[in-house]
Every structure is written in structure tokens, then in C-alpha cells.
Amino acid sequence: MTVYIDPPTWPGHGRMWSHLISDVSYDELHAFALSIGVPSRAFERDHYDIPSHRYADAVAAGAVEVSSREVVRLLVKAGLRRPKGRPA
Fold it and tell me: Is the pLDDT higher at 88 or at 31?
């Protein structure tokens, strides 16, 4: 199981956020998120939004650190990218 996380550089709601993704399946992503206590409401289209204070938890649990650009590339390559405005 490999999941990926980008640096917490995305602002929102008074904090910084990362994106947690899988390049295999949403099932893999959901299982990983559940294992580290990420609530299901944090899932958005093709990724989980992870607040900066939880970044280290995800990495310690095995998430691979990649750039934001690499997150998009991995999702597209896996056929899992769901851009805004497109149905699930």
C-alpha cells in the first residue's frame, strides 16, 4: 500500500492543508485515512484534506512525501483524478 502526501501549503479556514492520495484506488486511500483517524468528511473528490498539524502523523504511518505537482501527476496516471466540476 502506498499513499502520498504533499506539503501543507494550501490555505483554508485559518490553517494550511496537505492532500493525501492513492495511486491505486480510493479503497486503499480510505483504509489508510481510517487507520490514522482522518474523518470521512475530509475526503474531497479524489483526496483527503489533511491539516498541517496532522502531516507528520500521515508520514509516520507511511505516506510518501511528494510535491503538489506530483500528486496531480500520480492521480492522472492512475485514472483517479476528479477535477472540480466533474461528476464522481
Answer: 31
Residues paired with 18 in a beta bridge = 50
Cell of residue 26, nine digits? 480510493
* Residue 68 CA: distances (Å) to CA of 7, 12, 19, 84: 7, 16, 8, 16
Neighbours of 82 (CB within 10 A): 14
On whether the CB atoms of residues 3 and 20 are closer than 8 A, the answer is: yes
4 in Cβ contact with 63 (< 8 Å): yes
Q: pLDDT digit string (tens) for 23-49?
A: 999 999 999 999 999 999 999 999 999
Residue 37: is it exposed, middle or buried by C-beta count within 10 angstroms (0-12/13-18/19+)?
exposed
At which residue does the C-alpha cell 500521515 appear? 58
The model scores a pTM over 0.85: yes
Which of helix, strand or coil describes residue 60? Answer: helix
Q: What type of residue sits at position 36?
A: I
